[in-house]
């Protein structure tokens, strides 16, 4: 059984890691962008970002003044048991969020939408969000925290099958141009695209694609993987770079995730992760071990299964 004290202490450590330590995959992508950027202001911004990340790590302070809106993704292996059950788990994550807000510190961004009530701890109705996934084997749980900007950097459109790939490209480019010209996202960023599902699941797919996949990963469907490469190149060809200035590095990477949808529609969402790409992951075991990493490894074969039962997937592979 995984103790609730271990869950809370690990969650608090993850909150600090996410706010302060930029993931290696994104840092490598950012350094590559800085090496190839030739726009004066974009180059200046990229270099300042890299210097800021080093200072944040050295001083153990948040890498950005706006620390976004903390959220949690929890992956539970089938044989895992949690002390106190899921209610205790959620309480631990909410308490860890409140403690980290005052301890790291994080900016207390969460307020009531109407009355602007602020508990000064990023906790409230529906906050922080906690989403769940499951895996068929193991007795562990993965805790993943993501601190994503909570204002803009997201768009949605209902396309139709007849729009095809060209329609997807048009909306993608329209969205990136709007992000850059209107200051709706902080570039460069990992771009996530959700295709299909219903409107709500399409938005979830796109957000998870931007926040839960690492730079350089590719969708296992080779045709979608080709689109990811193409869309990264396409996004960097519109003449915009860091923070919307003239440049050629707006997209550090592009990740696409899909879900089956109604036959008459083709939903699409576009999400830009923050230029800080704040995420941290830990796997907790019943014996008290904790393994930290930065790759959420969320989109496993089980998460992308398209059969009724998981054993059908395994049998087809054997």
Could you spell the SSE succession in H and E letters? HHHEHEEEHEHHEEEEH
Rg calculated over all Cα atoms:
20 Å
Q: Which structural class matches the secondary elements?
A: alpha+beta
Give the biggest sheet: 5 strands, mixed
The total tally of domains equals 2
Mean pLDDT score, rounded?
A: 94
Number of helices: 8
**What portion of residues belong to β-strands?**
15-25%
What do you see in this structure?
This protein is α+β, with helices and mostly antiparallel strands and 318 residues long. The chain has two domains: 4-17 and 62-149 and 279-317; 151-277, no CATH class. It has eight helices and nine strands. The strands form two sheets. It has a five-stranded mixed beta sheet with strand order 2-1-3-8-9, covered by helices on one side. Strands 4-7-5-6 form a four-stranded mixed beta sheet. The chain is globular, with a radius of gyration of 20 Å. It starts with a helix and ends with a helix. The model has no long low-confidence stretch (mean pLDDT 94).
């Amino acid at each position: 059984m995984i103790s609730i004290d271990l869950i809370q202490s690990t969650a608090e450590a993850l909150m600090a890691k996410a706010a302060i330590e930029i993931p290696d995959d994104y840092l490598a992508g950012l350094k590559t962008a800085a090496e190839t950027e030739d726009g004066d202001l974009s180059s200046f911004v990229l270099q300042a970002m890299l210097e800021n990340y080093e200072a944040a790590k050295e001083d153990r302070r948040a890498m950005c003044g706006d620390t976004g809106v903390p959220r949690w993704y929890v992956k539970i292996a089938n044989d895992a048991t949690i002390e106190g059950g899921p209610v205790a788990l959620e309480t631990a994550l909410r308490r860890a969020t409140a403690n980290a807000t005052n301890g790291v510190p994080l900016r207390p961004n969460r307020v009531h939408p109407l009355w602007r009530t602020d508990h000064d701890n990023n906790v409230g109705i529906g906050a922080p969000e906690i989403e769940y996934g499951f895996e068929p084997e193991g007795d562990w749980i993965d805790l993943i925290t993501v601190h994503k900007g909570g204002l803009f950097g997201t768009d949605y459109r209902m396309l139709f099958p007849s729009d095809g790939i060209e329609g997807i490209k048009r909306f993608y480019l329209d969205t990136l141009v709007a992000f850059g010209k209107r200051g709706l996202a902080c570039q460069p960023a990992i771009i996530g695209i959700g295709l299909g599902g219903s409107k709500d699941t399409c938005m979830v797919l796109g957000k998870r694609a931007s926040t839960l996949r690492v730079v350089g990963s590719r969708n296992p469907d080779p045709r979608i993987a080709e689109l990811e490469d193409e869309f990264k190149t396409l996004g960097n060809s519109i003449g915009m770079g860091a923070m919307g200035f003239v440049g050629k590095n707006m997209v550090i990477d592009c990740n696409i995730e899909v879900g089956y949808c109604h036959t008459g529609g083709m939903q699409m969402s576009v999400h830009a992760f923050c230029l800080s790409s704040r995420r941290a992951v830990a796997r907790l075991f019943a014996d008290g071990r904790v393994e930290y990493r930065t790759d959420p490894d969320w989109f496993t074969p089980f998460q992308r299964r398209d059969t009724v039962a998981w054993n059908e997937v395994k049998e087809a592979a054997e």
